[in-house]
Write a structure and sequence with these properties.
Shape: globular
Mean pLDDT: 87
Largest sheet: 8 strands, antiparallel, barrel
Radius of gyration: 18 Å
Low-confidence stretches: none
CATH architecture of the largest domain: 2-Layer Sandwich
Order of helices and strands: EEEEEEEEHEEEEEEEE
Structural class: mainly beta
Strand content: over 45%
Strand order of the largest sheet: 1-2-3-4-5-6-7-8
Number of domains: 2
Distance between the termini: 43 Å
Number of strands: 16
Length: about 170
């Protein structure tokens, strides 16, 4: 069975062709890949393709079938697009999501650095907070321009998954 997977702005057709323990044969947009995938720890995977090694961290997102995907150099937003997701998107079309105005911790972690204060004007894409989770640091950026109205944490705080950290108006 093939699935559409959206990675940032790119959507790919992905199909699992064969699996034998850690070894898989996968087709992505009609190109086949042999991969060896091992789960190193919960949410962290080591992937070997054509002699190249990749470490990938998957963090469940707030919406169903969404994930933050972190590699050594890059971070991506991923979404599995199936019939249910297409239906949900059609229902949400035209609505301005409130999620753009809040920064939420995707998982438990520790606040390493906060780069803004209440009252600061922030720009779309500006780094606002850095969290440490699962031995990795992740930057969370403003998804809209506006003014910081609430900082619900301080540097050094331990946070829970889905905890609101910053509110922008």
């Amino acid at each position: 069975m093939a699935l559409e997977i959206k990675l940032n702005d790119r959507t790919a057709l992905v199909e699992l062709l064969a699996r034998d323990e850690n070894h898989i044969l996968i087709k992505i947009d009609n190109k086949e890949y042999n991969a060896d995938i091992v789960q190193v720890e919960r949410g962290v995977y080591s992937i070997l393709i054509k002699g190249r090694s990749f470490n990938v961290e998957l963090i469940p997102g707030e919406a169903p079938k969404t994930y933050s995907v972190n590699t050594y150099l890059n971070s991506y937003q991923a979404e599995i697009i199936d019939a249910e997701t297409k239906y949900r998107h059609s229902r949400e079309k035209g609505l301005q999501p409130e999620e753009e105005k809040i920064i939420v911790s995707p998982m438990p972690g520790k606040v390493v650095k906060i780069t803004c204060r209440v009252g600061d004007s922030v720009e779309l894409g500006q780094t606002l907070i850095i969290l440490s989770a699962m031995k990795m640091e992740s930057e969370f950026k403003a998804r809209t321009s506006g003014k910081v109205t609430e900082l619900r944490v301080k540097e050094g705080d331990t946070v829970e998954g889905k905890q609101v950290l910053i509110v922008i108006e």
